[in-house]
Write a structure and sequence with these properties.
Elements (H helix, E strand, L loop, with lengths): L2 H23 L20 E5 L2 E9 L4 E5 L13 H5 L3 E5 L21 H14 L5 E6 L2 H11 L4 E7 L14 H4 L2 H17 L1 H7 L9 H8 L7 H11 L16 E6 L7 H10 L3 E6 L6 H4 L1 H15 L2
Parallel strand pairs: 3-4, 3-5, 5-6, 6-7, 7-8
Antiparallel strand pairs: 1-2, 2-4
Length: 322
């Protein structure tokens, strides 16, 4: 072997060694001041075990209709705080923290289905309804919560009265490519993954929240504190990485024509995370849908434009009335 080839092979071996071992040498400092999720509970917080998972939820109101609220990525029941009092005037409201978010339990080992997988999240939603005695509900899904609501309507149409989807992440619904998934389970990837999710939510979290609003200056200290609170829950970073690794394309776009319930699609005209054109496309693909475009509003209408949001929901209820 020539000297040039020996050098080339030596460089490749060194590169492989750096890629394989380097991430294992990166220090992962423990998170400071994390506590069991229940220690962060609010006075109106409730917990119930569903399919082996301790789920954090809030419930108020009485009678029908029953609204079940599914928050988006990086959010929690906190994101519904401005519209829950208004929804309570219309019936019963249940808001819960989806797996990997809020104060819901974050298991790192499990027997049976992966609690962070898409299909398991649908089972959790139906299981929660069963545990709370909810026979039929209007599912309100924001952003990444919308695919769970749609899949529930497909798999359990008898349990879903109607859908309200807000900035719905249907056409942006992706997961890691198939070839990459086994690599994400490697110890090296898991260590780097923790650093990535910490960077995303700790250092850049406030900027991400502001980017979801049409007017970032309206994001006050209370809002930022509410989004930061779940970052004090034990293992929040590891659970979020488990969610990323478990993510798969739902392929809901191929089944939208099967949705048999009325759907209200709400989007802000300045939604920069799920552009309004995607919501228009979704409404056109659904058999029974109505699109409401809110002016001067971003990706979180329930927080930035709660009055306009509630007006759209009330009109939807009038449409559902016999």
């Amino acid at each position: 072997m020539s000297a040039r080839k020996r050098i080339a092979w030596g460089l490749l071996a060194s590169l492989g060694l750096a890629v394989g071992i380097g991430p294992l040498l990166v220090p992962i400092p423990p998170l400071a001041d994390t506590v069991p999720p229940q220690e962060l509970a609010d006075p109106d917080s409730r917990f119930v075990t569903v399919n082996g998972l301790k789920v954090h939820y809030k419930m108020a109101g009485r009678g029908e209709p029953v609204f079940v609220l599914l928050h988006g990525f990086g959010a929690s029941v906190f994101s519904w705080r401005k519209v829950m009092p208004e929804l309570v005037e219309l019936g019963t409201v249940v808001a819960y923290d989806r797996p990997a978010f809020g104060l819901t339990e974050r298991p790192l080992r499990w027997q049976g289905p992966n609690p962070y997988a898409f299909e398991t999240q649908v089972d959790l939603l139906i299981g929660l309804m069963d545990a709370l005695g909810v026979r039929r509900a209007i599912l309100v899904g924001h952003s990444a919560g919308a695919p769970v609501a749609f899949q529930a309507a497909l798999a359990h149409p008898e349990r879903v009265q109607a859908l309200v989807v807000v900035g719905p992440a249907i056409y942006a619904d992706r997961g890691p490519p198939a070839w990459l998934r086994p690599l994400l389970r490697l110890p090296q990837a898991q260590r780097l993954g923790l650093l990535i999710v910490r960077e995303l939510l700790i250092r850049r979290g406030d900027a991400l929240i502001r980017s979801a609003w049409h007017d970032p200056q309206r994001v006050d200290a209370e809002t930022l504190a509410g989004y930061r609170k779940p970052l004090r829950a034990e293992n929040w970073d590891r659970a979020l990485w488990e969610l990323v690794v478990a993510s798969r394309p739902s392929r809901l776009r191929d089944r939208l024509g099967e949705i048999s319930v009325p759907v209200l699609v709400i989007t802000g005209d300045d939604d920069r995370l799920v552009p309004p054109d995607q919501s228009r496309r979704l409404a056109q693909a659904l058999p029974y849908a109505r699109l409401v475009l809110l002016p001067a509003c971003g990706h979180v209408p329930q927080e930035e434009c709660p009055e306009a949001f509630m007006q759209a929901v009330r009109q939807h209820l009038d449409f559902l009335a016999p």
